[in-house]
Amino acid sequence: MNPNWQWQHPNWRPGWQNNPHQAYPQQQWNQPQNWMRRITIYEAMEIAQQQVQGEIVKVELEREHGMLIYEVEIMTQNGVKYEVEIDVNTGDVLNVELD
Known about the structure:
By secondary structure, this protein is an alpha+beta fold. The chain has helices at 20-23, 41-51, and strands spanning 55-64, 67-75, 81-87, 93-98.
């Protein structure tokens, strides 16, 4: 086998290394414009407080089951502590539980 042989996609065009979109011109790149957007820690805190009213005592960025989440711990006026899990990429509330 020739050591210099490389597989090329049938639609390959020279110069694709600089712009992969030129290599496959007919392929649709339908990614939403904010597909890499992540919410900030401040946005996560606001989202968590919409779920549980109280004082935020701790916020952590963690990886659970392969996805990044914010864990926001909130202490209510009654002294009950809740943990709110928020998806970093979407801002969706994943879980609210007593801590």
